[in-house]
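Kindly draft a polypeptide, keeping tokens residue-aligned:

***
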Amino acid sequence: MPYHSLRHCIADLERHGHLVRIGVEVDPFLELAEIQRRAYLAKAPALLFERVKGSPFPAVANLFGTMDRARFIFRETLESVRQAVRLKARPEEFLKAPHRFLKAPWAGLHALPRRSLGRVPVLFGKTTIDQLPQLTSWPMDGGPYITLPQVFTEDPARPGVLHSNIGMYRVQMLGNEYRSNEEVGLHYQIHRGMGVHHSRAAERGERLRVSIFVGGPPAHTLGAVMPLPEGMSEVLFNGMLAGRAFRYARIDGHVVSSDADFCIVGSIDPRAVKPEGPFGDHLGYYSLRHDFPVMRVEAVYHRRDAVWPLTVVGRPPQEDTTFGALIHEIAAPMVPFSVPGLVSMHAVDAAGVHPLLLAVGHERYVPYARERRPQELLTVANAVLGFGQASLAKYLLIAAHEDAPTLDSHDIRGFFRHVLERVDCTRDLHFQTRTTMDTLDYSGTGINEGSKLVIAAAGERRRSLASTLPAGFQLPTGFSDPRFCMEGVLAVTAPGTGDGVADTFCSGMEHIPMEGVALVLLVDDSEFAARTMNNWLWVAFTRSNPSHDVHGIRSFIEHKHWGCKGPLVLDARRKPHHAPPLVEDPAVTRRVDALCARGGALHAVLGGADSAGA
């Protein structure tokens, strides 16, 4: 049953018990976001907020709150989309087994975009930016922003919807230096398709037309974050996943999505910027205030029955965790065909996605060698770091498929155990320094600047990993509370925030027994780090920059290659240049506690659900 609108989806979810209406008025300033965070952690139904303070429009949250609900929404189209993605990656498979791909050609044919010649629902009415639900998620946010936008641009040199880009980029609605109702901020990160269109508009000396769609069939929202194979159109993908062609119209030169709930149209001067932010982001910290493009708003259109969809961005897990899992289900067959020698890869959500990438690759270069060592793996690693958004990875751990054919990059504990048992830190650490990094990652030397580390592991087990400290273990003065995060990974509370702390630790541990310890994390609070797997992954990989924060016991440099003969040491303390972590407003937490308590408006849905925490 293809959804022709967001209301259609909402009605279907409600009919099947996947959605609950909330009649009490909710405040979009902090309160609504805290409710959404709790709803996601509680695996609650989708929530339709019928009264949003300050806006005439209702809002829906937690649409993708569980994988079961996401699969339910796309129950009729997921398989055909998987087939189409697989065929795009490897078209010769159709000739080998055409019966396996019978749905894909029809799905593509029916998904071709269609220009609306009659009624265009999104053009029912006009409104202004300040009348939209002003969602503000975190206390230090620079203003409200659109959390589920579909930002549409066309290539100025090659216009047409099939050559367009649709991405999910942050859109700040109010605040900072933006002229109210006349301007919005457009924050897109490096390695995003909109950047190509932006550059070409600048080369031509033209303003770039931009359309921001909000709502519509849920497939359009997922399509905005889907990493598609080169050459596959986003509007075509959206049509396949929706089971209904992308319908559009042109108004004063702008493309509007006929089925969207809202459409904001305008343009950007390719060389004009204004400060945007700060905002809480998916790494669990604030991305700070920086200059980004500014869009001049020309009109804001909406449907008769428009509903504003929203989510919250913050430390994982959040609703975008479900997006990641769903994307993996769709795109996984594409990976081995896109990067030769790559078996699988996994951007680890708990570590903020881009900071940590786990991969399994083939190691077949010298099959006759007495000892297997990383060779082909390094070729694969370099290819991965040049592949789409995987190029933003900060730490890439890659293991040989031949050592463990059942090794699963999504089994995080098992993967780390496998790598730490085999890695040779005298040869298997490969750095890239002074390179690009995720725009939202502040562990580096500046915005978009940092380093990368590839850790490659192949061959027989070199060590057994410990979960207890060896006899004679002793920490240097000032270091305390050693705790195992998992086998072989030890967290130690380290003093202060200054330089030289890791060097002091490493020199003080040169002659201390460390059997079975492969990785040491120097942290601000070892109890917090060791409390959960998610905690130590988050602390270790969001608070470190490889070139500056990777150390080792008995380290050396030989012919410009850095290595260590003892355990690897990661300085994962918070540094003065790091962005602040996200912390909820206590007063808002108390208000939401009251709504969730017995007798409160949310008790039936979220009774007993705590706010997000470690």
Observations:
- The chain has three domains: 6-310, 319-457, 480-571.
